[in-house]
Design a protein that fits this description.
The structure holds two protein chains of two kinds.
Chain A lengths: L9 H34 L16 H29 L7 E8 L2 E5 L5 E3 L1 E5 L4 E7 L4 E5 L4 E5 L5 E5 L5 E7 L11 E7 L1 H9 L7 H11 L2 H5 L17 E3 L5 E3 L2 H9 L22 H13 L2
Parallel strand pairs in A: 1-5, 4-10
Antiparallel strand pairs in A: 1-2, 2-3, 5-8, 6-7, 6-9, 9-10, 11-12
Helix pairs in contact in A: 1-2, 4-7
Chain B lengths: L12 H5 L4 H29 L10 H36 L8 H23 L13 H5 L4 H28 L12 H33 L12 H35 L6 H14 L15 H28 L9 H24 L1 H7 L3 H31 L5 H27 L14 H31 L44
Classes of the chains: A alpha+beta, B mainly alpha.
């Protein structure tokens, strides 16, 4: 039995400091209230000789004091916790993107070089990682307690979470959102390795082409290139370098072309029509699985 | 010759099932929710037995999932929500404001029948094989993947919801229109303030639940694209709608408990409640801010980071009035003359456990901490401290406090104290280890778990056994007291509420003469 949890990511250490600070703060207040409660209970028990003249029924300064003091402290904690939370969603530039797909009842991960793994996730220590999560059926939640990270995988969209593993080791990986019969068995382990060992692991046993190469092949085979390639006779947006750009839409909105935008543009092309183009693209809903989508999007990201 | 009271007005089953007397309807509710409580408790006991070992060896994964679903559905909608509002609210609101009955007596009986009908659907689902969606019915699992009796339970909760709405409406109108002469708003006992605020939530939030559950049923039957992205819907929309009801629902459970504590503590400390106005405003504050915090259930759901920040800040705000109440109950003991009767022990236990539950709520409102703690046993421990340590403790305290008025008999005081202490220790042994389990990363709704969590799970299961004893005890001695308990005087606690000015048990029309109120509540004096 152990009563501590390894703190194996950059964020884990920050979360722990916040946790122990709050334990101290709430512990002091709880203990204080308890002591006062017990003292009053003993001192003012019936038939004790304590002075009971003029029990106060209200004390304005006291009541305002115990309203606004907690308020100030709470706002401080709110800001602190929000600043740490924001780090989950602001990946370091150049963070390694890994696609993770949930499915009743397993986690599948796809590395950029095409290496796939099931119910395991291998990561290099010290390198910023960004997980892009999706699911093939119901909602799942990717949870690694040692990293203090958790993020739901939601049908029909991408979600993501960013962190940097800081300790070599093996850690539990769970599904934290109830997903049906074998929910408790959905998971496995996260293996954090030294960078050299990780690089070796990434290469060995990888028979597949890289995600980007798979995506390029899909780009041609599914007919995307017929309209989107340079020199096409169909009037369609040029996709070279689209990732990370701000796109102006027909209805006047501006969106950042991230994985979610590219996903929607493939599956729900009527949702975000680019300014100056007719909404003629057919939907590819039902024609691409999550792995193929990840490959296509990786290709688009790298097609500068 | 015995004096007639509401219990002796009729002895046939028919006289009970057709009654329009708010006090008899309260008894009908009490019987129904007690049955549901022990049904939901049985499900929890089986879960705790399963979790004694890390392997899933007592029941199958399917059965375990059905157990926690039915435990949640029954305890939330068929015990906690109707517990204090429908049992004690029905019994006490007219008595405390000096009225002859609720504003709409027939509607009141209708509410009970709707509640029972909803309960029958839920029990039917159980008999037909159960349901495995979790009480939260998250889509698309509930709409497209679960193979169990989802529709039956949805219909059951939908119907029971109308019972909530109508009870809320009835209490609101009663408090507005039927107060005795002289009983101004700021002379109302805090239990009335709490019942009133609770009724507002029942009336405003429950329709959203009803609509949401109806949409889930529609989508399951006809594949309408509301929530399932496969048909063009949005699963997060479901979560927003569900928690828009289900977060305020927590306040439906705990505001009445606060009301109860605010009656019991002044009575047994023999002095006026400290900071009456702040207490009343705090109740209204909780009820209104409580409507704006639902998104704190969704910090890792994929909702926008900025939405998360707004909901986090509002969640810290809603903790302020709760903190005020804890401080005020404590201050009420100062210069009191405290008697530690069973209701007082329950009330003091309530204050302590509610404080721990509330403080751990701050951990979950803090965004970065919630990411780690949500969907783990930390959350389970947190809301059981509020709902069981808070609401159930207060419910039991209230049952003991008003037992002489309800039944006309005294309960055995020593057994009452023993039960209160047993419940307190059993509760802490059951749920405190779950905070540690959650911090160490044990996810909720797990039929099996990593072996390093076994010791803490053992403590928790042992605690559940103690807690079960603590809950069966009152059932036994209160039933016994109905036949053998000493006859209760009109006002055994020398309490100040209007309900104590009439006989125990009260006559059918509550008061022989309409009371006239000339002062505020809690006119206790510790020196006398």
């Amino acid at each position: 039995m152990r009563f501590t949890l390894p703190a194996a990511s950059d964020i884990a250490q920050r979360v722990d400091v916040l946790f122990y600070a709050m334990i101290a703060l709430t512990g002091i207040v709880a203990l204080g209230v308890l002591v006062v409660l017990v003292v009053f209970c003993v001192r003012y028990r019936a038939r004790s000789g304590a002075d009971r003249t003029n029990p106060p029924t209200s004390k304005r300064w006291l009541e305002l004091g115990w309203t606004f003091t907690p308020l100030a402290i709470f706002l401080g904690i709110f800001v602190w916790a929000a600043l740490v939370y924001a780090r989950f969603y602001t990946p370091a530039s150049g963070a390694m993107t890994i696609f993770v797909v949930g499915k009743q009842w397993m986690w599948k991960a796809e590395h950029a070089n095409g290496r796939r793994e099931i119910d395991e996730l291998h990561l290099p220590v010290g390198e910023p990682v960004r997980l892009v999560l999706s699911t093939e059926d119901v909602i799942h939640s990717f949870y690694v307690p040692a990293f203090r990270i958790k993020q739901d995988a939601v049908p029909g969209r991408y979600t993501s979470i960013a962190f940097t593993p800081t300790q070599v080791g093996e850690y539990w990986l769970h599904c934290a959102e109830y997903c049906g019969t074998d929910h408790a068995r959905m998971g496995g382990r996260v293996v954090v390795m030294a960078p050299a060992a990780f690089a070796k692991w990434l290469q060995e046993g990888n028979a597949s082409a890289s995600l980007a190469a798979l995506g390029f092949e899909l780009f041609r085979r599914k007919g995307c290139s017929g309209c989107h390639a340079a020199g096409s006779t169909v009037h369609a947006p040029d996709l070279a370098g689209v990732y990370g750009r701000v796109v102006h839409l027909e209805d006047g909105r501006e969106v950042l072309a991230d994985e979610g935008y590219l996903r929607d543009s493939i599956l729900l092309p009527k949702k975000d029509v680019v300014a100056g183009f007719a909404p003629i693209m057919p939907s590819f809903q039902g024609q691409l699985d999550e792995g193929e989508l990840a490959a296509l999007i990786t290709y688009l990201k790298e097609n500068k | 010759m015995t004096v007639t009271n509401y219990l002796t007005e009729g002895f046939t089953l028919r006289s009970w099932l057709t009654t329009r007397d708010h006090k008899r309807i309260a008894i009908l509710y009490a019987v129904a929710i007690t049955a549901f409580f022990f049904l939901g408790g049985a499900a929890a006991s089986l879960m705790r037995l399963e979790l004694v070992t890390p392997q899933g060896d007592l029941v199958s994964a399917e059965t375990y999932n059905k157990l926690f679903t039915i435990h949640g559905v029954i305890m939330v909608w068929f015990f906690l929500i109707p517990s204090i509002p429908s049992v004690l609210g029905n019994f006490l609101v007219p008595l405390m404001i000096g009225a002859r009955d609720m504003a709409f007596p027939r509607l009141n009986l209708t509410s009970w029948y709707l509640f029972v009908l909803g309960g029958l659907f839920t029990v039917a689902a159980l008999i037909a094989g159960g349901v495995d969606t979790g009480w939260t019915f998250y889509v698309p699992y509930s709409t497209a993947y679960s193979q169990t009796n989802v529709i039956l339970v949805l219909v059951g909760v939908f119907i029971a919801g109308f019972s909530s709405i109508l009870t809320g409406l009835n209490i609101i109108v009663t408090v507005h229109k039927l107060r005795a002469p002289g009983l101004t708003w700021f002379r109302l006992p805090l239990f009335i303030w709490a019942s009133y605020a609770t009724s507002l939530i029942l009336l405003l939030a429950t329709p959203v639940l009803a609509m949401t559950l109806a949409l889930v049923a529609l989508e399951r039957f006809f594949h309408v694209g509301i929530f399932d992205p496969a048909f063009g819907g949005d699963p997060l929309l479901f979560q927003h709608l569900f928690w828009f009801y289900s977060h305020p629902a927590v306040y439906i459970m705990v505001l009445p408990a606060m009301g109860v504590a605010s009656e019991i503590i002044p009575c047994f400390a023999r002095r006026p409640v400290f900071g009456y106005r702040f207490m009343a405003y705090a109740i209204l504050g909780i009820a209104s801010i409580g409507f704006l915090v639902w998104g704190h259930h969704m910090f890792v759901s994929g909702q926008s980071m900025y939405a998360g920040m707004v909901f986090s800040m509002l969640s810290f705000l809603v903790a302020i009035p709760s903190a005020i109440k804890v401080f005020n109950w404590t201050a009420t003991l100062y210069k009191g003359s405290i008697v530690f009767s069973a209701p007082m022990l329950y009330a003091l236990g309530f204050v302590g456990l509610f404080m721990i539950g509330g403080m751990t709520g701050l951990f979950l409102a803090a965004l970065a901490l919630d990411v780690h703690l949500t969907d783990t046993y930390f959350v389970i421990a947190h809301f059981h401290y509020i709902m069981v340590g808070g609401s159930v403790m207060a419910y039991l305290g209230a049952i003991h406090f008003w037992w002489p008025k309800i039944s006309g008999r005294m309960y055995p005081e020593m057994l009452g104290r023993i039960a209160a202490i047993t419940v307190f220790f059993g509760f802490n042994l059951t749920f405190f280890p779950q905070y540690l389990l959650g911090w160490l990363g044990m996810p909720r709704r797990y039929h099996e778990y990593p072996p390093e969590f076994q010791l803490l799970n053992l403590f928790s299961s042992a605690g559940a056994a103690v807690l079960a004893i603590g809950y069966v005890l009152p059932l036994v001695y209160l039933t016994w007291s109905l036949l053998r308990g000493a006859r209760a005087p009109a006002n055994p606690w020398h309490a100040t509420g209007l309900e104590w000015q009439t006989t125990s048990p009260p006559p059918q029309h509550n008061f022989e003469r309409e009371p006239h109120v000339t002062q505020g509540p809690y006119a206790y004096d510790p020196v006398r």
